């Protein structure tokens, strides 16, 4: 029985979204701009057709290739992943204004009341790595949590794992989630960090996302309902609130690559593995580091080449992304872009432009699931 591996390269967009202008992102193109600025050597994904998806001159593709367009009104992680799994977002997210302060008083008061402090730090749009450098020492002195947001529908809380406490931070985020979800804020994210001072602060792998529940069954639910083994690699478990998953494996991207490799070896017949590699976005997109982004893409390509070589003849491994995050673009936020769709195990085919929901339908049909949602099979 066939297996499917759906692999999301978080934020690896390829530009040309038809509605990019309405998001202020007309002209953004994550992959192309990195390639133009730094150059990319990615022989394994280029062989499948990444160059064609990017719109550059490239040798003839040897795999399935195309691009996908999103209809959900967002450029964030839940919107992209939910729609890739067959469920476009049926509501408008709440986005906090890019002002200081960003949050209404009732949110600030609730956080402060839980923590026993006379306020919070931050209360603005910010890069997560920059804000802990700026406010981490004051946070350790005062005990006030660092709260910030972005162009996504998100409320993030950074706190020191030791002086504030990892369990206390998770409890705070869990406490705030129902209030914020009722306001249509997509995620509350705990952002623990360690270190002694601004020069040494570093975020840890113990991040946790408290996401709104998906409003209807997804690809993961369809697979589980048909008795298939389902695995989440990376933050998939957080994005889908654990729903439809038998097992979740987490860590930094290097550990996630090991998990994915292990699952190619271990996953039973008929299994669905859904993976997200986040560090393109979190470490290099938001920090506007095209050189770092390029290096991580090349690392991924080299590692995934070794994994693809182990796939069974009837396995499908499909690569895509959830949005863009052009490191040459202004600001520090995601960019509204189309995303590549590449696959090994589906023959050589130019699928042109498809929709995010078509990814779910195609994987579902490949696995022979009873449900495939609103999309169409492009395989």
UniProtKB/TrEMBL annotation:
Please name the GO terms of the biological process aspect recorded for this protein, alphabetically.
Answer: 2-deoxyribose 1-phosphate catabolic process; 5-phosphoribose 1-diphosphate biosynthetic process; metabolic compound salvage; nucleotide metabolic process
Question: Which UniProt keywords are given for this protein, alphabetically ordered?
Answer: Cytoplasm, Isomerase, Manganese, Metal-binding
Taken from the UniProt entry, a GO cellular component term is: cytosol
How does the cofactor bind to this protein, according to its record?
Binds 2 manganese ions.
Q: Which residues cross the membrane?
A: none
Where do the annotations place Mn(2+) 1 binding? 10, 322-323
* Catalytic activity as recorded in UniProt: 2-deoxy-alpha-D-ribose 1-phosphate = 2-deoxy-D-ribose 5-phosphate; alpha-D-ribose 1-phosphate = D-ribose 5-phosphate
| Record localization | Cytoplasm
Domain Metalloenzyme stretches: 3-370
Q: Which cofactor does it need?
A: Mn(2+)
Q: In which pathway does it act?
A: Carbohydrate degradation; 2-deoxy-D-ribose 1-phosphate degradation; D-glyceraldehyde 3-phosphate and acetaldehyde from 2-deoxy-alpha-D-ribose 1-phosphate: step 1/2
Q: Name one GO molecular function term.
A: phosphopentomutase activity
Residues where Mn(2+) 2 binds = 281, 286, 334
Instruction: Supply the Pfam families for this chain.
Output: Metalloenzyme
Tell me which EC number(s) this protein carries: 5.4.2.7
Chain's role: Isomerase that catalyzes the conversion of deoxy-ribose 1-phosphate (dRib-1-P) and ribose 1-phosphate (Rib-1-P) to deoxy-ribose 5-phosphate (dRib-5-P) and ribose 5-phosphate (Rib-5-P), respectively.
> Which family does this protein fall into?
Belongs to the phosphopentomutase family.
Q: Which PANTHER family match?
A: PHOSPHOPENTOMUTASE (PTHR21110)
Tell me what this protein is called: Phosphopentomutase
Specify the species. Litoreibacter albidus
């Amino acid at each position: 029985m066939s297996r499917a591996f759906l692999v999301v390269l978080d934020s690896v967009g390829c530009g040309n979204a038809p509605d990019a202008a309405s998001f202020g992102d007309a002209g953004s193109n994550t992959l192309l701009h990195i390639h133009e600025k730094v150059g990319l050597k990615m022989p394994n994904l280029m062989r499948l057709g990444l160059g064609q998806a990017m719109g550059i001159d490239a040798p003839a593709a040897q795999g399935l290739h195309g691009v996908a367009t999103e209809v959900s009104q967002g450029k964030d992680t839940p919107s992209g992943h939910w729609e890739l799994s067959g469920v476009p977002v049926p509501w408008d997210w709440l986005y906090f204004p890019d002002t200081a302060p960003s949050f209404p008083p009732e949110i600030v008061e609730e956080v402060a009341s839980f923590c026993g402090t006379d306020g919070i730090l931050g209360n603005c749009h910010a890069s997560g790595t920059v804000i802990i450098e700026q406010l981490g020492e004051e946070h350790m002195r005062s005990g006030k949590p660092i709260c910030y947001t972005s162009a996504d529908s998100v409320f993030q809380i950074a706190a020191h794992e030791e002086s504030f406490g990892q369990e206390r931070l998770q409890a705070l985020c869990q406490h705030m989630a129902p209030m914020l979800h009722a306001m249509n804020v997509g995620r509350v994210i705990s952002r623990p960090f360690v270190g002694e001072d601004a020069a040494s602060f570093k975020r840890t792998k113990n991040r946790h996302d408290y996401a709104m529940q998906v409003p209807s069954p997804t690809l993961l639910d369809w697979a589980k309902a048909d008795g298939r083994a389902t695995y989440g690699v990376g933050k998939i478990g957080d994005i889908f609130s654990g729903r439809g998953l038998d097992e979740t494996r987490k860590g930094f991207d290097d550990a996630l690559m090991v998990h994915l490799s292990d699952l190619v070896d271990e996953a039973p017949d008929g299994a669905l593995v859904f993976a997200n590699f986040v560090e393109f976005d979190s470490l290099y997109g938001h920090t506007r580091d095209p050189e770092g982004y390029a290096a991580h893409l090349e690392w991924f390509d080299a590692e995934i080449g070794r994994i693809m070589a182990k796939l069974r003849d009837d396995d499908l491994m499909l690569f895509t992304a959830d949005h863009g995050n052009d490191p040459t673009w202004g600001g520090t936020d995601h960019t509204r872009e189309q995303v590549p769709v590449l696959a090994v195990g589906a023959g050589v085919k130019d699928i042109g432009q498809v929709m995010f929901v078509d990814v779910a339908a195609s994987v579902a049909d490949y696995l022979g699931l009873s449900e495939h949602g609103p999309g169409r099979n492009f395989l």
